[in-house]
Amino acid sequence: DECMFFGPTLLELGKEEYENRMHVLCLSIGNESGLGKIRKKELEASCTSLGIDVKFVRSLDHPELQDGPKNGWNPVLISSIIEEYVEKHGIDVVITFDDKGISGHPNHSAAYNENTSYEPNFHDKINKKNEEIIEKEENLLNLPNSLLFVSTLQQFIRSRKSMKCHKSQLVWFRYLYIFFSRYMVINHLEKVE
């Protein structure tokens, strides 16, 4: 998902000049078909190709967070895992799917729903911390409500290369996705209040 849906964002925000330390927290190793160990290694390779240090890539294999569109995830558990990870690593901003996920996939929307519905103070705290940092730096600026990232040709090629690290998932329709999906080129992010 990191390269299929967030490649433009990760490549832009991960630029050296911004001095951001990017993390990827995957709530499942993707073991729906018994390929969890392989998919974990593929995720690490993909993130490395996107410029994310593998020591900041974490995949979970929790019994209550198993991959699959029919597997509901415990929202309280998700909240505690994300909050603990954010606190431990001093993370300022969390980027995730919207409330619909991609094509309604319940695992995609689970993190969003948890952070906005069940623990509203958690997301406010993240955004508030970021606003305070910016206010110290630039008194006249407020965080924008949305951001748009459009990949350059070189970034698109890196996203494609990253996607090809997921060999166990590269079935014929994913090749079509690589060339025709807007998410491989454009990401539109909205701030959650």
Automatic annotation (TrEMBL):
EC number: 3.5.1.89
GO molecular function per UniProt: N-acetylglucosaminylphosphatidylinositol deacetylase activity
Transmembrane segments: none
GO cellular-component term (any): endoplasmic reticulum
PANTHER family: N-ACETYLGLUCOSAMINYL-PHOSPHATIDYLINOSITOL DE-N-ACETYLASE (PTHR12993:SF11), N-ACETYLGLUCOSAMINYL-PHOSPHATIDYLINOSITOL DE-N-ACETYLASE-RELATED (PTHR12993)
Protein family according to the UniProt entry: Belongs to the PIGL family.
Name by which UniProt lists this protein: N-acetylglucosaminylphosphatidylinositol deacetylase
